[in-house]
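Worked problem 6 (solution included).
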Amino acid sequence: MEKLSTITPDITPEVFNMPEQDNAETQLTPEAVLSEVERKMARSIEALQRDLASLRTGRATPSLIENVSVDYYGSPTPLKQIASISAPDARAIMVQPWDKQALREIERSLMRSELGFNPSNDGNIITVPIPPLTQERRQELVRLLKRKIEEGKISVRNVRRDGLESLRKLERDKAISQDQNRRSQDQLQKTTDAHIKDIDQVSTAKEAEIMQV
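Solution. The predicted structure is:
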């Protein structure tokens, strides 16, 4: 049975910091807080989508392997930065290194990636066969998908938490009124709900893609 991917999601929670201000005195406002919340939540979803691209479906696509880390002259490097990747048909991915000296290391990295691939090379090009998924493997991938989706939601909620604390601090500092804080918190919740809904839509589409025979 193929091993599940252990690629670390690029959706780690981040401390809520506003963009650096210029030397002029610029007061933090609820609008600025909400704008930064929107930006960071959007980034979380983008990172989630990149991570989900590595989940195998029944078809060969370059995105399955483009972020596999290769030890390129001692430096961990995404495969897409050192090779041309294509999928000439639904059952194979072709990798052509720009530097032939890296061919063996790329092949070893693909085999060690825990994505369940068995690559081979002809001295110039690496071929990565993509066998059809079994029903059991599809179910495993759906379970992995759900874990990644929950991680994406946690990232969004962490941004909400930090934004909420920023709004509360504005009220404590008398920069805004209680009513302004309440209205801003309502907008913060609406923004959070919208991004959680977006994640649910991404999940539904990806699960359908995995289960499609």
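Discussion: The beta strands are 69-72, 75-78, 83-89, 92-97, 120-121, 126-129.
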